[in-house]
Hints:
- The structure is a homodimer.
- In chain A, strands 1-2-7-6-3-8 form a six-stranded antiparallel barrel.
- The first copy, chain A, has one helix spanning 20-23, and strands at 5-8, 28-33, 49-55, 65-66, 75-76, 89-100, 103-107, 115-122.
- The two termini of chain A are 27 Å apart.
- By secondary structure, chain A is an all-beta fold.
- Chain A is built from one helix and eight strands.
Amino acid sequence: MKPIGTIHSPFKYGDAMPVQSIEGRDIEGYIKLLPEYVDGLKDLDGFSHIILLFHIHLNKKVKMQTRPFMDNIYRGIFATRSPSRPNHIGMSVVRLNRVEGNRIYIKDLDIVDGTPLLDIKPYLKVIDEGDKVKLGWFEKHNKREMGWHD
Amino acid sequence: MKPIGTIHSPFKYGDAMPVQSIEGRDIEGYIKLLPEYVDGLKDLDGFSHIILLFHIHLNKKVKMQTRPFMDNIYRGIFATRSPSRPNHIGMSVVRLNRVEGNRIYIKDLDIVDGTPLLDIKPYLKVIDEGDKVKLGWFEKHNKREMGWHD
């Protein structure tokens, strides 16, 4: 695994961060892709939303359970988006504004400035229309992802 | 990065593989999680869909552009789900059947048997209801992900 670029955002390390892109709504930033990968961006601009996989580089902790804010129950790490996961891979769906050379302008960011980018994938609707989606413990929180006590 | 478990599916290496979970509809398999991560599964069973991040371990190639089947135009790798990406991280949304100890039974698989698992995340609806989602070159293909010529 090696970074393919860097994510730039208004959130500096230590700032209060929005958690998940619903809270980062309209926050703008950009990706600076390493020049050797620019050819891979062809046709990306037709997509309204893209998935970013990135290295959660500021978090070295690994926990099996965590307490989300506004929730006092410990949840299994795999039932949350907490950063303290065994492999520190983060995932965000962001809106794509435009691509200019090796810069990809994006919106709805919840990612800290300087985060190493690992992959970009087009957002495709993969859930069958008829499927009922259940959100587990998260359902009562009004689709709003939260931070973590510990 | 190290595997947290292994994905088991009916697709052996070299078989015709479904591409993306829409084509893998109803295909069943399971994850065998390493025992040290079982505590992280608490509350996962409330979710109907989970996101798997895995190592695309059978593909060592990296390409910047690729031609999807049924499409003769080269597309940028980041505008596709092709496995030949700079970091070989695959992503699938699958339906969760049940959790039994360190086994997670799943449905809608498009993943080859023996694939090393890197992460499990709960599937949350992150796109705002009002957002219009544009699928770029992929739109005309009826939401069906495809394989790759090369």
